[in-house]
Every structure is written in C-alpha cells, then in structure tokens.
Write a structure and sequence with these properties.
Distance between the termini: 33 Å
CATH class of the largest domain: Mainly Alpha
Shape: elongated
Structural class: mainly alpha
CATH topology of the largest domain: Arc Repressor Mutant, subunit A
Helix content: 55-70%
CATH superfamily of the largest domain: Winged helix-like DNA-binding domain superfamily/Winged helix DNA-binding domain
Radius of gyration: 20 Å
Strand order of the largest sheet: 1-2
Largest sheet: 2 strands, antiparallel
Number of helices: 11
Length: about 260
C-alpha cells in the first residue's frame, strides 16, 4: 500500500528510530503508514452497525500501528505492511470485542448455524443448500437470511484470523508474522506453512461456487461488498450473507481438520 513517502526516506526513518531511538522518526513513520489504518478500518467498518463510529475504529487501529512500529524488526526480512496489517486489524477487533456490543442471541444463533452447517456437510458430504440448512434449523429461508445478515453485521473475524496464533510474548500474531528471513528459512517452518496454505486452499475449493467467488473478490481483489454485489448482480446485503456463510464454513472445516 502506498505511503506517499519514498522508499529511501522510509529506510532512513527506520534506521534512525531503531538504531538511534529517534522519537521524531517514530512519529513520521506513524504518519507515513497511517493510510493503512484508514484502509483496514474501512474494510472492517463496512460490515458493522451504523452506531460504530469510523473515527473510533481509526483510533483503535492507530494504537495497533504504533505497536507494530515499536515491535517491528526490519532485519527479519518481513515486509512491514504485512506485519502491521495484522496488528492494526487485531487492535480494532480486540477493542470491539472488549465493548461486547453483540447481542447474546446473535452469538448463540451464529454458533447454532455453524454447528448445524458442519453436521449437514458431514451427513451430505457436500455443502448444504440454504433450504436444507433452514429446514434443519427449523426456520424459514427468509429467517435464515435475516440471521446471516445479523451475524455479518456483528462479526469482525476474517480469513486471516483463522490462522492466528500466540507468540512467546503472549501477543496474537498471524502466521505471516512467524515467517523468518527467506534467506535463512527453517525447513520445518516452511513445511508447516506449506501445509497450512494447502489446507486453506482445499477448504476454499470446497465452498459453493458463489461463495468461492465472494472470497476471491473480497480477499484477493480487495473489492467492497457493494462492488461484489454489482459483479454478481445481487444486493450488498446478499453478498454479506454469502461472505458470512463462507467464513463460517471455512472456520468450521479448518477446526475439524486441525
């Protein structure tokens, strides 16, 4: 993601901050990378209730960015943007969860749908249709779609959270944060990373075609839910439902395979 600051200047800022503990260099790094915060906050905020203020999300994200700058080790050979994105998103999600604004009924329904979906997939050996899922839950298809929309509006997990682990300090980091310098890669870590990618690829491939497309457009093409709706010829709320079903299905499948 563009920072608006030349690469040479960024390298100098990192050197001054890490080697000389230059506070002004730290502040300039925060400003340089701040567009990342707005981007992540915008992606997360798109599916949240209207009473969640975008400014609050940006504030939470800035704390994550500052933490990422303080903890980042340039010598590890990891791109800062990759490292920081997870920290920023994690800071926003942690703060939202601490506020506990999601009704218990929505959380309970999400667990029920996830469990029922997994049971039907095991029984049918394929992804159940919405009609089959609704019938198993004992509700109408309209009620199922309403529930999925409510869950989508209260869910802040995403695909990159499915592989989040704890490091030695107890902090939550993504799998990408654990990759060492590629010039001195540990073969065992490389194998583990490859296996994780293979499992995630297989899980995505098992999704119904429309859910696969939503995942691809949202996570790989960086389209918004509204833009995906225009591609598919459906409403933004319908895309939100499809995204929620896909993530719930992946989460359930990956936990079962673990």
């Amino acid at each position: 993601m563009e920072t608006g600051v030349k690469e040479v200047e960024l390298r100098d800022l990192w050197r001054r901050y890490k080697e000389e503990d230059d506070a002004s260099a730290r502040e300039r790094l925060v400003v340089a990378y701040s567009p990342m915060v707005k981007f992540v906050a915008g992606r997360l905020g798109a599916g949240l209730p209207s009473h969640v203020d975008d400014a609050d999300l940006i504030s939470y994200g800035l704390m994550g960015l500052i933490g990422a700058i303080e903890r980042f080790e340039p010598e590890r050979g990891i791109k800062f943007e990759t490292f920081a994105m997870t920290r920023i998103r994690g800071a926003i999600i942690d703060e939202l969860r601490s506020l506990d604004w999601v009704p218990r009924s929505v959380r309970s329904r999400a667990r029920e749908i996830e469990a029922t979906q997994a049971a039907l997939e095991h029984q049918l050996q394929r992804a159940p249709s919405e009609a089959e899922l609704a019938a198993k839950l004992g509700i109408s298809e309209d009620e199922l779609q309403t529930s999925l929309l409510e869950i989508a509006n209260s869910s802040v997990y995403a695909l990159d959270e499915l592989w989040t682990v704890s490091d030695s300090s107890g902090d939550q980091v993504s799998l990408l944060d654990t990759i060492s310098d590629p010039r001195a890669a540990d073969p065992q870590e490389s194998l583990a990373s490859s296996e994780v990618k293979d499992r995630l690829t297989e899980a995505i491939a098992s999704l119904p075609e429309r859910e696969q497309l939503v995942v691809a457009l949202y996570y790989y093409e960086n389209l918004t839910l509204r833009e995906i709706g225009e591609v598919l010829g459906v409403t933004e709320s319908r895309v939100s439902q499809l995204h929620t079903k896909a993530v719930m299905r992946l989460k359930s499948g990956l936990q079962t395979a673990a």
